[in-house]
């Protein structure tokens, strides 16, 4: 182990895109992997899944498993593959099962409030 660290993220976290709040949770998890910046994972039950559309894109991470992707549908645009989840993560990453993470960008804000 050691390569991946997962801990509860302090405070309340939100995701906003296209003027809408997509997620708000007090149960976010912070995943740190090697030298990468930490990634915040949101429990599915705290996400407005109606804004998300399954994508056929997928990637494989040797440390976390296979990632499924989602596009975010806003009023003005579709943000392709802007969120992802590990439906069947490796043992090291089992705590993030059922959670989604979002790519922060000009159009997607992931922040502690």
Automatic annotation (TrEMBL):
Show the PANTHER family listed in the entry. BLR5716 PROTEIN (PTHR34310:SF9), DUF427 DOMAIN PROTEIN (AFU_ORTHOLOGUE AFUA_3G02220) (PTHR34310)
What is the official name of this protein in its record?
A: DUF427 domain-containing protein
Q: InterPro entries annotated for this entry?
A: DUF427, DUF427_sf
Source taxonomy? Bacteria, Pseudomonadati, Pseudomonadota, Alphaproteobacteria, Rhodobacterales
**Residues of the DUF427 domain:** 14-104
**Which Pfam families would you find in this protein's record?**
NTP_transf_9
Superkingdom of source = Bacteria
């Amino acid at each position: 182990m050691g390569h991946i660290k997962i801990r509860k993220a302090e405070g309340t976290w939100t995701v906003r895109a296209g003027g809408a709040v997509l997620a708000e949770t007090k149960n976010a998890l912070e995943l740190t992997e090697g030298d990468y910046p930490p990634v915040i994972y949101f429990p599915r039950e705290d996400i407005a899944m109606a804004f998300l559309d399954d994508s056929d894109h997928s990637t494989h991470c040797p440390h976390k498993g296979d990632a499924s992707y989602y596009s975010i549908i806003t009023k003005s645009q579709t943000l392709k593959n802007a969120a992802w989840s590990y439906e069947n993560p490796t043992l090291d990453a089992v705590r993030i099962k059922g959670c989604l993470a979002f790519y922060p960008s000009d159009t997607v804000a992931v922040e502690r409030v």
